[in-house]
Amino acid sequence: MHGPASSGWLLVALCAATGAWCLVRMRGGAREQRRVAGSEALMGFGMAAMAVPAAAFTPPAWAWAAYAAVFGPAALRALWAARRGSAHHLHHLVGATAMVYMAVVMADAPAHHHAHPGGGVPLVTGALLLYFVGYVLLSGARLVPVPAVPGAPPAVAWGERPELTRACRLSMGIAMVAMLLTL
Fold first, then answer.
1. DSSP string of 77-134?
2. Integer Cα distance of 164 and 168 in angstroms
3. Residue 18 confidence (pLDDT)
4. CA 5 to CA 11: how far, in whole Å?
5. pLDDT, tens digit (0-9, with 9 covering 90-100), for 133-154
6. What is the pTM of this model?
7. What is the mean pLDDT of residues 120-136?
8. Measured in Å, how far apart are the chain's first and last C-alpha atoms?
9. CA distance linking residue 153 with residue 170, whole number of Å
């Protein structure tokens, strides 16, 4: 992605840490939870790789096709899983599609220097930004602490804590906004 190197490295660290947390989540839980955690780990590590500052490493031309080859099937898998009516699988579909879109734009970037006819933000980028900003706001609101309920079940193991999972999803949403803004 294009932008300041220091913020790029922070984005890489955030996405890699999120991907690592998702790998930890894959160790426990039900089969579907492990599958979701695996999809989120792929997204986290893919975003980390894509966010490496261009000043530090310029990926070869084939790298953008590789991103599309990885995240295209991930989008199809999320679409298939979403047929059961899961909103979170739809979110994975949008995220994987956004990664394919960014890969296509970045593959085309050297030839066009990010020029958009008529100026402004391209329609797809704007729509993705609106979606992810809304997702970040909603996810952030879900992190607001609520008072403990007397007699509630005991806390779960740290690898299964829902607030950490929500925080990771929030951080990936914020990272996606940042990446789309630098597109």
1. HHHHHHTT--HHHHHHHHHHHHHHHHHHHHHHHHHHTT--TTSS--HHHHHHHHHHHH
2. 6
3. 93
4. 10
5. 999 999 998 887 766 667 666 6
6. 0.83
7. 92
8. 7
9. 25
